[in-house]
Please model this.
Amino acid sequence: MLLLSLSWAVIPKPLTMKVFATTQASNTAKLSNTFVVPIAGSNEEVLHQLGADHKLDVSWLKRDFKGEAGEVLPVYAGTKRYFLLGLGEKPAFADILRSFRILSYKWSKQLSPELIIDWTLGNVPDDLNAAADAALNGLLLGAYQLGKYKSEPADQHPLSHPDAEVCMLTDADISAALQLSQVIAETQCRIMDLVNAPSNYKLPSNLAAWVAQSGQQYAYRVETWGQDQIKAAGMHALLAVNQGSAHPAAFIIAEYKPAQAGHYPTVALVGKGVTFDTGGISIKPSTNMHLMKSDMGGAAAVFGTLEAASRLQLPVNLIGIVPSTENSIDANALKPSEVIGSYAGKTIEVIDTDAEGRLILADGLSYAVKHFNPDVLIDLATLTGSAVRTFGYVTGAMFTHNDDLADQLYQAGWQCGERLWRLPLWDLYKDDIKSDVADLRNFSGKPTAGAISAAKFLEAFVENHPAWAHLDIAGVAFTDSEVNGGKAASAYGIRLLLTYLRHLTKTA
Ligand code: BES
Ligand code: ZN
Ligand code: ZN
Model:
């Protein structure tokens, strides 16, 4: 047990990889002979150029390389090795990221620790800063490895090598974009470790330890309430969910303020921190229950955004609130039919103990509103199976009454490839959470409109905040993908929120 409780006490060494941009391949510190040539669409010019430079038969190249997103063709020419990398026609940020991630993940055995990404050969994307950011993000996420708990470590990815270097060959000055990209990717990898961690390695106390360490290292304030303080504050809904667990709940408050004094908007982020969701007495079927170790994906997105915002010194006051507990079962566990209280003072009839996320978020949200009065309030939660059934792994579900906020979050999502799609919050759905015996109930008892009625429930705890958005990320936080080796954490939300915040503060 000692080992377990110490597991997050040590922050892994940040990637040591050096990334830089230059106009001349000969300027690279260590000369590499491995080139990646990103190519948007069926660009024959670059193939002709390569053919002419190296006396290659262009017809072979044209036949075997179409430039589709994620397509890779290795070309060996003299002492040089080229990986032609398709990005697809008119590639967006997400296409570039995915293509580079595929190259990094699927071709890891062939890649070398020194890579030159040559943006001068192919048709360069319009926004080279964004393209370089996406490319580096893809390379670094593709180097992420599951299997942290294996006795025998897996083969090291070449880009995890201590002397790894990525050089971007370009005429433009993209160094700021590369720096930003590296910070985001490092944070995403740390957050993926956290979400992928088995449930015995991430009790609420471990989450608190993780963020305390992060705050210490990256200079933001972190405070964690234990069981007594949670009780004293009257967070009855969080306590009710925690009743059946052997491990105490934690209420985590993190706060980042820019080093330079000034007037900044205050944005509060609230994340669902259920470290494991058995469903409680309304127990889940066993088949996929192990996946419920990821039920703290919302909390993880909040932590990652705070860490990265602090490292990047974004001009915004950022609050992170995470109510954290297991949803477990023992003789003390919360039972369907119980009426519980809440921090806001409202009473809740518990119909289903598996609808626990909305209970703990209720306390987190009303605390955030009452205590910090933020300009913008955003919660992120792996809240409903309904969101997964509706959207699969493709987009998060967004709920808000504020059209401007909806627009900004939607745009941010499309820009960075962490998409959001809006669903209604109409009062037509209010009956779903009406209770005969208490102020409201936590489940309608019906198999319909699950994500919406969950959002309606949360709405009752935000005190009519004019700029509140609820993001149900159940489908996108922990996903199947071709580039992460099965079901695994996506780190969804970090880049989305950072993109939104950079637009909000006009530093984009
Ligand atoms: N954590 C789950 C939601 C979930 C499901 C997340 C699948 C990720 C993947 C949540 O606590 C839950 O169990 N929700 C129930 C609510 C229902 C009982 C009202 C659901 O959506 O089925
Ligand atoms: Zn649940
Ligand atoms: Zn849950």
Summary: The first helix runs from residue 2 to 5. The chain is about 35% helix and 20% strand. The chain has a mean pLDDT of 93.
